[in-house]
């Protein structure tokens, strides 16, 4: 049945509209399973009724005209129970309902499977036979598989308005879940960006003049090289050096002699230039896409983008420039840095990428440029929504398609309030971060890009709790030299001096991989990452630490932090290497002091050994993002399980309190540098727990300060006690919402959809 399933899926995907897809499904399923009847019922989201929408074997005149309630008949029971029902004598079942005129009274065997998309019942798929028999396990599994395939088709069709089961529907609306790539609300019109040329569609063809084909290929390469240079110049004043280096990556791919030589070889063998390019680039793309590592998958996007650009010049020399309207929301399957660069900045308000994660190059650029962005919106039928009204919710990661007047007004209001609130909070910049009863709570910032510096200082950051040193590594094609690293780190230290800057040693692995240092693992988040990599490669670790220490000369505002620590041996080994680098530099005449050294607590093992770790270092800092992820076994970049990621989960809160208690028992300060530190409501709990410092995204600084200055520290102990006694994250959230209302800070709660 596997081959049958594949052929049905292919036919459905090629269907022009949903009704055609439904007709294909019912006829092909009836054929494959050898049944007399196959029927699809679709659930009307307004009334909840299951409407007879497609059928093979019953009365076609009743399609769209009859329906069942969720409490009616066997079909209603399948939908209500959300599981298959398999009967050999359907008419004897107490829930059997006779529908006059439909013609099913002669069929005894019944198998129904619910059609479910993202926990919502979309309809029911049914097969029936005259023979009185139960369908076997293979047949039942096949129907369940088909219903799962049909669920996505129906969801997409309903979202794009190609189906409305309600007679009163005037236009479809839908929301699609992705991953928050850059915060903010964007309201505008979708502009779908797709390559001019499709590499996989180029036919193989023999050329009559290989020399002419070679000349065309070289001319196309030069034209693309010129385009990339022009885009690079265009964004020169908008992006800092680290982000701007992304265009150098493109140029290096163009100038890489390996793939170009392969194209030339195929041309010399008689293939025309377009075919040679297509075959070589497609091979490289497949190689990268098959890799498990997230970073290498992103490189496939870059290669594909450049290959299509070269192909476009081979196909035509008269490519008209795209026009972008005001309030453009850029949408594509794989947004790239060059696509972003082609849109005038004043017209671009938001971005949505069907593929990619919050660590994609384009997400990094979006955050640097302040463009609300959603990544990984995998269910968005992007090819069908050109010019559609969209709302991009960069806070929650949702994309709202064709929003209703109510939803539109809600987000318009949120956006306006966001702007007004941000402007109003500017008055807090130079005020102390302290509660009404005088409790001080230092607010630091997380950085990684030079673009963060000015904004952070403008918003009153009192130090850097996390400088992500991996960013300069990710934006290069090789390890940066010791001198290159020293210059980068020096720039950060000078910018914030005399305020402290906490530099995390190289944290790669997981979803952060270097193109020149591949890490291929089946489960990278439980593999070779963070301190494990650098301890295995002390030459990398020592170069980085030496660069940090050199950069701190005369400033003495450096702090070093070790990531992904899971046992005390790792700390001991790292401290020995740091002291070795320090001693060597002192011997060489550098006038430096040994900086404070700390540990990131971001795996459960570190929580339970927090006190032992605190004895060995100068401070602890909780990475709440990874700690939550590991405690709950939830990949926060996976949209299928993102709803299970709850930073207010009681297990997370108890772990956070345990770390504070352990650090303070050893007389060491403890901070938190994950996203939880920038959550205005969560700050009430973190202060009560006893955290000594909070480090966050610069956009959160003034919001958090506003909450701190509106509450009384003495009142927070009761709130924490109540939060620690409840059983669910939702109960904690409700407690915090009430607390925010009580202090007049409800407007600072994270915006939510209508």
From TrEMBL:
Q: What class of enzyme is it?
A: transferase
Read off the Pfam families from this record: GAF, PEP-utilisers_N, PEP-utilizers, PEP-utilizers_C
Q: Does the keyword Transport belong to this entry?
A: yes
Q: Which InterPro entries match?
A: GAF, PEP-util_enz_mobile_dom, PEP-utilizing_PTS_enzyme, PEP_util_C, PEP_util_CS, PTS_EI-like, PTS_EIN
User: Where do transmembrane segments lie in this chain?
Assistant: none
Keyword annotations of the record? Cytoplasm, Phosphotransferase system, Sugar transport, Transferase, Transport
Q: Which residues form the GAF domain?
A: 17-164
Highest rank taxon of the organism = Bacteria
EC code(s) of this entry: 2.7.3.9
Q: Which GO terms describe its molecular function?
A: phosphoenolpyruvate-protein phosphotransferase activity
List localization entries.
Cytoplasm
Name the catalysed reactions: L-histidyl-[protein] + phosphoenolpyruvate = N(pros)-phospho-L-histidyl-[protein] + pyruvate
Put simply, this protein is called phosphoenolpyruvate--protein phosphotransferase
């Amino acid at each position: 049945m596997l081959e049958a399933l594949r052929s049905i899926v292919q036919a459905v995907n090629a269907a022009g509209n949903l009704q055609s897809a439904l007709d294909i499904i019912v006829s092909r399923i009836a054929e494959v399973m050898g049944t007399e009847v196959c029927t699809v019922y679709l659930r009307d989201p307004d009334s909840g009724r299951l409407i007879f929408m497609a059928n093979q074997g019953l009365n076609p005149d009743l399609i769209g005209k009859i329906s069942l309630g969720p409490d009616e008949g066997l079909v209603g029971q399948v939908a209500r129970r959300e599981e298959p029902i398999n009967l050999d004598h359907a008419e004897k079942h107490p829930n059997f309902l006779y529908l006059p005129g439909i013609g099913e009274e002669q069929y005894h065997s019944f198998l129904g499977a619910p059609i479910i998309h993202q926990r919502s019942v979309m309809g029911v798929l049914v097969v029936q036979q005259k023979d009185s028999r139960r369908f076997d396990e293979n047949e039942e599994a096949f129907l369940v598989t088909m219903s799962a395939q049909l669920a996505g088709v129906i969801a997409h069709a309903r979202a794009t308005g190609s189906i409305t089961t309600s007679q009163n529907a005037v236009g479809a609306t839908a929301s699609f879940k992705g991953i928050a790539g850059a915060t903010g609300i964007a309201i505008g019109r979708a502009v779908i960006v797709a390559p001019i040329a499709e590499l996989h569609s180029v036919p193989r063809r023999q050329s009559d003049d290989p020399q002419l084909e070679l000349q065309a290929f070289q001319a196309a390469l030069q034209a693309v090289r010129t385009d990339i240079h022009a885009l690079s110049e265009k964004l020169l004043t908008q992006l800092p050096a680290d982000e701007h280096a992304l265009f150098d990556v493109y140029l290096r791919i163009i100038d890489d002699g390996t793939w170009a030589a392969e194209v030339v070889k195929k041309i010399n063998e008689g293939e025309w230039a377009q075919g040679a390019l297509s075959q070589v680039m497609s091979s490289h793309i497949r190689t990268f896409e098959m890799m498990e590592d997230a970073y290498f998958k992103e490189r496939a996007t870059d290669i594909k983008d450049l290959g299509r650009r070269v192909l476009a010049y081979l196909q035509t020399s008269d490519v008209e420039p795209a026009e972008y309207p005001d309030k453009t929301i850029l949408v594509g399957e794989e947004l790239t840095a060059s696509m972003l660069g082609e849109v005038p900045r004043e017209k671009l308000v938001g971005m949505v990428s069907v593929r990619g994660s919050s660590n994609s190059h384009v997400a990094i650029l979006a955050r640097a440029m302040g463009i609300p962005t959603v990544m990984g919106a995998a269910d968005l039928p992007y090819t069908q929504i050109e010019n559609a009204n969209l709302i991009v919710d960069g806070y929650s990661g949702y994309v709202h398609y064709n929003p209703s007047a109510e939803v539109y007004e809600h987000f318009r209001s949120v956006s306006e309030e966001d702007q007004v609130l941000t402007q109003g909070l500017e008055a807090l910049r130079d005020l102390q971060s302290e509660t009404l009863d005088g409790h001080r709570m230092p607010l630091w910032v997380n950085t990684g890009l030079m673009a963060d510096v000015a904004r952070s200082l403008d918003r009153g950051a009192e130090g850097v709790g996390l400088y992500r040193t991996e960013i300069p590594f990710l934006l290069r094609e090789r390890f940066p030299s010791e001198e290159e690293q020293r210059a980068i780190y020096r720039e950060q230290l000078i910018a914030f001096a005399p305020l402290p800057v906490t530099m995390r040693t190289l944290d790669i692995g997981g979803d952060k991989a270097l193109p020149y240092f591949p890490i291929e693992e089946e489960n990278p988040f439980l593999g070779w990452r963070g301190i494990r990599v650098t301890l295995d490669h002390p030459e990398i670790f020592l170069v980085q630490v030496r660069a940090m220490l050199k950069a701190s000369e005369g400033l003495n505002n450096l702090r070093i932090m070790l990531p992904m620590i899971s046992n005390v041996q790792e700390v001991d080994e790292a401290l020995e290497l740091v002291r070795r680098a320090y001693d060597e530099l002192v011997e060489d005449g550098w006038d430096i002091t040994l900086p404070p050294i700390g540990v990131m607590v971001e795996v459960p093992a570190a929580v339970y050994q927090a006190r032992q770790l605190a004895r060995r270092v100068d401070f602890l800092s909780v990475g709440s993002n990874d700690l939550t992820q590991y405690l709950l076994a939830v990949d926060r970049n996976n949209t299928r399980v993102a709803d299970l990621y709850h930073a207010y989960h009681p297990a997370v809160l108890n772990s956070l309190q345990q770390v504070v208690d352990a650090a303070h028992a050893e007389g060491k300060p403890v901070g938190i540098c994950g996203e939880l530190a920038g959550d205005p409501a969560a700050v009430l709990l973190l202060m009560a727990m006893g955290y000594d410092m909070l480090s966050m995204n610069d956009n959160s600084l003034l919001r958090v300060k506003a909450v701190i200055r509106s509450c009384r520290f003495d009142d927070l102990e009761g709130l924490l006690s109540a939060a620690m006694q409840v059983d669910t994250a939702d109960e904690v959230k409700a407690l915090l919402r009430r607390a925010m209302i009580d202090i007049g800070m409800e407007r600072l709660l994270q915006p939510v959809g209508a």
